[in-house]
Amino acid sequence: MSENDRKKAPNFFVIGVVKGGTTSLYHYLEQHPDIYLPPIKETNHFAAADIDHAHFLPTYARDVDIDLDAYIRSGMKRQVHIAHVDDPAHYAALFTRVKGEKAVGEISNSYMICPSAAGAIHAYAPDAKIIVVLRNPVRRAWSQYLMNLREAKSDDIAFKDELLRDHHAERKGWGVNHQYLQLGCYADQLKAYIDLFGKQNVLPIFFEPYRSDPQKVMREICTFLGVDSDFAFDFSVESNKASMPRNKTLNKLLVSSGLLNGVKNLTPKPIRKHFAKVLYSENKIPKLSAADREWLQEWYRAEVKKLADLLGDEVYTHWPEFKTTIPA
Description:
Blueprint: H1 3-8, E1 12-14, H2 22-29, E2 35-36, E3 40-42, H3 58-63, H4 68-73, E4 80-82, H5 88-93, E5 103-107, H6 110-113, H7 117-124, E6 129-134, H8 137-150, H9 159-167, H10 186-197, E7 202-206, H11 207-212, H12 214-225, E8 244-245, H13 248-257, H14 259-266, H15 269-279, E9 280-281, H16 290-311, H17 314-318
Parallel strand pairs: 1-5, 1-6, 2-5, 3-4, 6-7
Antiparallel strand pairs: 8-9
Helix pairs in contact: 10-16
């Protein structure tokens, strides 16, 4: 890599988590004049060794279906939420617009759960800064379930049944099954990055204060990245806000036919927002039952203890319901 290419290469990575607010974080970070993010929010480039394209769920395959050659040749004029940028030349092309920004980075949630990603990133950028947003795993799984109902990516079955069916799926992996439960097992996933990059170069952010006081958390992130921490971010736009289809049958038809993705890709954001209001409602969102919440809390209790052993008791400050005695 030439010196010029090195200046345009990523020096920080946000590694997750799914339903941890990384879409909002992408839109906040891209506002900062000293930060560069590529036009594809999730490239999944460094997780390629763990990703099995041949067995993708049909809905996921549609989500990542993009002609990268054509997209790059056309000038990358629109933002893309997710793709699989496996070719190093394609990946490098996403950073050709870097103009001296101090912090150059990317966000891919697959980097947290795919075991090969930490080593691949370290081989590419051993001095990189790593950021992860950690969400209460119970609420994270519930939020993913709601998202999949909205996007017709899973059958409309009971929450616990959906999680257990997915957990016992014959084939598992990024894009192959939903990994509801595994995505919340943070400790071992994060430890791989701490072991490689050093604890001083890994910044865990907790979703709960990030949502309640985003300005404070963004100042912390900016300080970590070495850019102006007094920058005034615009937090007025909320990304991926929960909602449910007004008509489940119509929604499933639009998703399975590919029409919904076509509308997203071909229409400007203001029109997409109006279209979303027609299709979805924020008044029909199911509530997590007390029984399901308690079941998941017990399922994750030992996992959260492992995370607290890794990061300290701050974990229990944000997720106090997990603070009980764990049998030896």
